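Show me a record, fold above all:
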Amino acid sequence: MTAALPDLAPPSGVFVLGMHRSGTSATAAALAEFGFALGDELVPAAVDNPEGYFEHADAVRINEALLHGLNSGWEDIRAMPPEWLQSDAAGEAVAAIGERMLPFFRGRIPWALKDPRMCRVFPLWRQALVAKGIAPACLIAIRHPDEVASSLARRDGFAADYSHVLWLRHVLESLRAAEGLPLEVVDYGTLVADRGKALREALVRLGFSGADLPVRDAASVRPMLKHNAVMVDGGLRSAWSALATQVHGDLLVAEADFTAILHRATARFDALASTQGLPLDAVGAMVRAREDAARVIRDGALAQEARADKLQARLDETDGVLAQEQARSLDRLQAAQSLRQVLDATQLAFAAEERRSLERLQAAEALQTTLDATQAAFALEEQRSIARLHELQASQTELRHIQSTRWWRLRIALERLLGRSRVRGDTH
C-alpha cells in the first residue's frame, strides 16, 4: 500500500501521522527499535501513556504554538483556517523548524518524527523540509475509529460522533498532505498482532533498506498495551461512525488507492457536514473555548505545581543543609567529646605526674636533709681528724724532741762514761 512516486529520492526519514490514541506511540517505539532516531529530548511519559509518547519535544512545542496561534488545537474538529500557511503563526513555525529541527533531520539518518498534531500541520513541515532538500516519507497509523472513540470518551469525555469527526479530520488531512510522497498505512491491530512484521515490510516499500532493518520482533509492541478494544458488529451506526468505519476498512485493503479514498471520503464528509445537523464550526468553537478554559485552569494548576515544586525544592534544599549542618554538628560534638576525653586523660596524667613530682621533691628534700646532716657530720669529723692530726703531729714533735733529748742525754752520758774510763786508764 504505497503511494510513492518513482522519481523521488530515497527518503532520509519518516513522519508518523495518525489520530490520537491510534497507536502512533507504539509505531514510533518500534521504529526506534528498527534504528530510527527519535530525538534527544522526548516528551516524558504520563498517566494516559505510561510507556511514553516517543515525540520530539521541540516538534511538539512548535506544533502547539502554531495551532494556538491559529486559535486551534489537537481537539478541534473545524477545518484549518483559510490561507493559514501564509499566517504569522506559520512563519514563526517555519523559522523554528529551521532553527531547532534541521540539525535533527540532517544529523540523524534515518529519523522518525511522531506527533498526532502533525496530521493538521504537515503541509507546513513538508514545505519547510522540501525547501531544504530533505526527502521525507509518511506512515499513517490507523486504528478502528470505534476504539479511538472509546479511548477519548474515557480520557476526555468526548461524544462518539465528535470523536469520529475528529478521527476523519486527522486521517483525511494526513492523506491530503502526504499526496506525492512515499506513503504507507500501518494498522495498530496488525502492528500488535505481528510484533512489527508489517511495519518492517511497509518501511521497505517506502524505500528504506531492508538489510538495515532487524528481523526480530519489536519488543516494545506488546498486546497488553492495546486497550479499549471494541466488538464491531455492523449494527446501527451514526452516519459519522459509518463513514469513519468505511474509511478505516478502505485503507486496510491491499494496494489501496489512497487518492481515490481521499476524494470519495472528503465528498461524503462535506455532504454529512451539511445534512446531519452537526454544526462543525460552532461545536468546534465551543469545544475550543472549553479547552482554552481548561488550559487556563491547567496552566494555573501547573503554575501552582511549579511554585509548589520550587517551594519543595527549597524545603528539600533547606532540609539538606539542615541535615548537613546536623551532621557537622554531630561531627563537632564527637570531636569535642574526643577532645574532652583526651583532656581528661591529660589532666589525670598531669595530676599523676604532679603527685610523682611532689613525691620526688619530698624525697629530694629528705635526701638533701640527709646530705646536709652527712656533710655536717663529715665536717665535724674532718675537724676532729684535723685536731687529731694536729695532736698527732704535736705528739710526733714531742716524741722526736723526747727522742732527741734522750739521745743527747745518752750521748752525753756515754761521753761522760767514756771520759771517766779514759781518766782511769791514764791513771793506771
Summary: The longest helix spans residues 280-427.
